[in-house]
Structure prediction request, 376 residues.
Amino acid sequence: METDTDLITYALNARGLNDADKKRQKQKSIFSASLGFLLLLVAVLPLVFFGDIGMSQYTWFMGLALTGVIWSIFYMAVVLGLDRLVAKFDPHFVFYPAAGAAVNISLFVYLAPEIRIMALGGWFTVILFGGALLRHKQLLALSIIMGLLYISAIIALFLGGYPLDLFTELAQVIPFWAFWLYSGRVTDRMRARREENRVLRDKLAHLAFTDSLTGLDNRRAFESKLDQTLDSLKPGQSIAVIVFDLDNFKRINDERGHLAGDQVLSHVSNTLKQLLVNYHSLARMGGDEFAVIIDVNNLEELDQKLKEFWTRFNATTSGQYTTSGGAVFCDKKVTSARCMRIADTALYEAKASGRNCFRIIDLDDIDKAMSKRKHR
Prediction:
């Protein structure tokens, strides 16, 4: 059963990996695939050394070199961003590396025909690991490619004088093909079920951590993002937490009805999204209260940004309704709970000062005052 923290983490990342993370994941997958082939070569090395199979040391090193070339091509394709050229057909960049695996397996069959049955069975591993990201038609195409490459390797061995029964060797591809196609069907269903589950989880995450009226983060998501943002700050970096509250919102509900109140809240949320930039989270905390986390370098910058915001907010709403706000300047040394507590205190001061204004509380001033009080 997932913990509450697990659900929050999933919700905050429900939109998926960013491009850099996807790139690293592809590189890791290609490296893991190449490692599997290299381990196979290492496993047969003692047999080569003692002459237990017909593969010579020269052909062993040839296999090693060709394996390195094949997987280096795919790795560099990701590094250089060439995988984007086939993203429409192969968005996860799995089909083409899997085709490369088919080439690699067939090369092993040709270089070490004694392990050909093992190589045919090894194709199931490719289907197993790639099937969750590939559609049935792609898996079908890959299995056909694998079968044709294997047949080509067998014919080349036969023409080269290797002692084998060509008809028997070609005939045994048929049951393997049937097995591969069945496996592809199963893994395709697994992929479809996995996609259904992902969509369902995304919807649940959206409902659990998004305000249904405004589409903004809710309080739960905001507090989690504030924790994450503070934890990720480096020495010298800072953020500001700003809490907004609509002035006399109860009067709007009482005089014009709750539907009109909801319309005002929706308009305010859209206005905040337009006027606030470079924020980590913009949330409706509940009722008519909103909060935002923004990057700032110092108190002067925060003060200037808030002055500009209030001027533009009042111009946008044409004075039909106003807001009061409280802000606090935070760094890594401050807990999220304290940030919110001080921001709320600043908001109350703004309301007590006549509304339609903001107040900023400097945590350094509070800490200095507390320090002086302790030393008296």
